[in-house]
Design brief:
The complex is a heterodimer. Chain A contains 13 helices and ten strands. Chain A is of the alpha+beta class. Chain A has a domain at 20-78 and 176-331. Chain A has a seven-stranded antiparallel β-sheet. A three-stranded antiparallel β-sheet of chain A has the order 3-4-5, covered by helices on one side. In chain A, a hairpin with a 6-residue loop joins strand 9 (260-271) and strand 10. In chain A, helix 11 (296-307) packs antiparallel against helix 13 (323-331). The longest helix of chain A has 18 residues, at 88-105. In chain B, helix 4 (80-92) runs parallel beside helix 5. By secondary structure, chain B is of the alpha/beta class. Chain B is built from five helices and ten strands, in the order βααβαβαβαββββββ. The longest helix of chain B has 13 residues, at 80-92. Helices cover 23% and strands 28% of the residues of chain B. The chains are: A alpha+beta, B alpha/beta. At the A-B interface, helix 5, helix 6 and helix 8 of A face strand 9 and strand 10 of B. Chain B: Residues 137-180 form the Dimethylamine monooxygenase subunit DmmA-like C-terminal domain.
């Protein structure tokens, strides 16, 4: 299966869009007509063929354009990629995980060959052919985490485990939903989640932490999270909020379909073999409202979820200013019919 | 537990009687916490290095009281920055069995903790006591500049000039709260200024 990589942008003229196939495989995050925070963690098992979870690491039609956008972000703000010194072993673990997964599941695009510690990596979509020595940072043009994640969709955190807690000690974060790696680097699990409302009080983070401390090698897990973004902008960082925040004021009844996007994060966690660290990947998928409503079940359901969302959650997700406009627009695509259980289209 | 889950808790100073050396950093009114903890402890005082800066939080005249304690080594520094230079040199040469203490305004505690981290001192092992004003040290998330002694929200970033809202989120590594622009969705539309951190 060869992917047709699109030429598109996530800034300035915003030419991003989804093909009909990409819409069908969008990881729609609601299996019911309402939403509340939950520890919605499941085994990261292969999902249906062509779905976003068919393979552990999903590469799709936006790959080349997303990597170009990441490169632009890093050029303007190198602090989006940071790693504390003790994380170097975890960086190599991550490089191995991603290269092995990508080359196994997308052999027409990526090839990894090994001769002991001498590795040869070929990335055809990005035109990269690199021979290097595994474990020797001097043989790569970037440190291992940065090297491999400049070639893999999704943001990545490397999380250390000590003192019965998890510590965000490395990461590359260029498509985040309004949180700062530079600020959160070195924090523990409870600390970096401090700004999230409600969830602390209902014990979500206590349970999630307990679960993740026991994460086993070879048994990755995943969950979905979501928010909304105006314009298909990947870099909705707090660092640049003073530049993109104004987008939220530009939503009108006429432009909802094209401008307003549901933003879904497919978050996955792997235990790493050498470092005992955890990879936390945050893969972002965007879909325009006019694309979303081509799936009637999703149109009905998202209308109901957004309409009935508790105000506190709507505020935290930054939707307050335009939520009603979007709900009104979606209402035209909701005939009130019941929706079937589960995430997938009918 | 602090209501702000990323904000450290400062339980108050106490004497670690098992420590071989006591390395104490105090700012302003933090001197009173040091006096309360070490007064009448001659053995501990003899093994104590105390770095004190009068600071900006009305810390007046505590140098004499500290000198009168009979502390082994007392350094009085003119500013927080110079106190940190002293502290860093002591941390670089600290021996096993040294206990680190910090007392004063939160920004100063944060700097001591961050410096401890850089020297391999676990933050949970540092004894801390918050004295003096509630002023916050705030990092602008946009330009990354730090503004000291912020007493109100919103405030103007002392580096880039954006109007920042002080978010209840604290970074131990940066020893700072997070400042985020407040009026980018409607330039100039500022919420009423609240003097929350006096």
């Amino acid at each position: 299966m060869t992917i047709q990589f699109k030429t598109e942008t996530f800034r300035d003229d915003f030419t991003f869009s989804n093909s009909p196939e990409a819409i069908r495989r969008f990881p729609f995050p609601f299996d019911k007509d309402h939403y509340m925070y939950a520890v919605n963690i499941e085994q990261h098992m292969p999902g249906p063929i062509k779905s976003a979870t068919e393979f552990p690491i999903d590469i799709d039609e936006h790959y080349v354009a997303e990597m170009a956008d990441r490169s632009l972000v890093l050029k303007q703000d190198p602090l989006r990629c940071q790693s504390l010194p003790h994380m170097i072993t975890a960086e190599w673990d991550l490089l191995e995980l991603l290269m092995e997964s990508m080359s196994k599941h997308y052999p027409e695009h990526f090839t990894l060959t090994k001769d002991g510690d001498r590795w040869h990596w070929i990335n055809r979509p990005l035109g990269i052919d690199q021979q290097f020595t595994f474990g020797d940072t001097a043989t790569l043009p970037y440190p291992p985490m940065e090297y491999v994640t400049r070639q893999c969709q999704g943001d990545f955190n490397l999380i250390d485990q000590r003192n019965d807690n998890l510590w965000m000690d490395a990461g590359i974060i260029t498509s985040q939903a309004d949180w700062s790696l530079d600020f959160d680097l070195g924090m523990n699990f409870m600390e970096w989640h401090a700004p999230v409302p409600i969830a602390h009080d209902i014990g979500v983070f206590d349970r999630a932490l307990k679960f993740l401390l026991n994460l086993q090698q070879g048994r990755p897990v995943r969950r979905l999270n979501w928010t909304m973004t105006i314009n298909p902008r990947l870099d909705t960082s707090p660092e640049n909020y003073h530049k993109w925040g104004v987008d939220r004021t530009t939503v009108t009844p006429e432009n909802v379909g094209d401008k307003v996007h549901l933003r879904v994060e497919l978050q996955a966690l792997w235990r790493l073999p050498r470092s005992n660290a955890i990879v936390f990947s945050i893969r972002c998928y965007l879909i325009k409202m006019e694309e979303l409503v081509t799936i009637p079940k999703w149109a009905r359901r998202f209308h109901r979820v957004l309409r009935d969302l508790p105000d506190q959650i709507a505020d935290y997700k930054g939707t307050t200013r335009y939520r009603q406009t979007v709900v009104d627009w979606l209402a035209k695509h909701d005939d009130g019919a019941p929706t079937s259980p589960g995430f997938y289209p009918d | 537990m602090s209501a702000i889950k990323s904000r450290p808790i400062y339980p108050g100073l106490k004497l670690d009687e098992r420590a071989r050396r006591h390395l104490v950093a105090a700012e302003g009114e933090g001197a009173l916490a040091v006096i309360g903890t070490f007064k009448g402890e001659p053995a501990a005082l003899a093994a104590t290095t105390l770095i004190y800066t009068p600071g900006g939080s009305a810390g007046q005249g505590h140098e004499d009281a500290l000198a009168g304690l009979g502390v082994g080594t007392l350094h009085v520094a003119p500013t927080q920055e110079t106190a940190m230079v002293r502290l860093n040199s002591f941390l670089a040469n600290a021996v096993m069995g040294t206990r680190l203490y910090a007392a004063g305004v939160e920004g100063f505690l944060g700097k001591v903790i961050a410096s401890g981290l850089e020297h391999g001192v676990d933050h949970q092992s540092i004894y801390t006591e918050h004295r003096g004003s509630l002023a916050r040290r705030v990092q602008c998330v946009h330009c990354k500049g730090v503004t000291e002694d912020v007493t109100a929200t919103p405030f103007v970033c002392s580096h880039c000039g954006l109007n920042l809202f002080v978010r209840d989120h604290y970074s131990r590594r940066l020893a700072a709260f997070q400042g985020v622009v407040v009026d980018c969705e409607e330039p100039g539309a500022l919420p009423a200024k609240e003097e929350l951190y006096l």
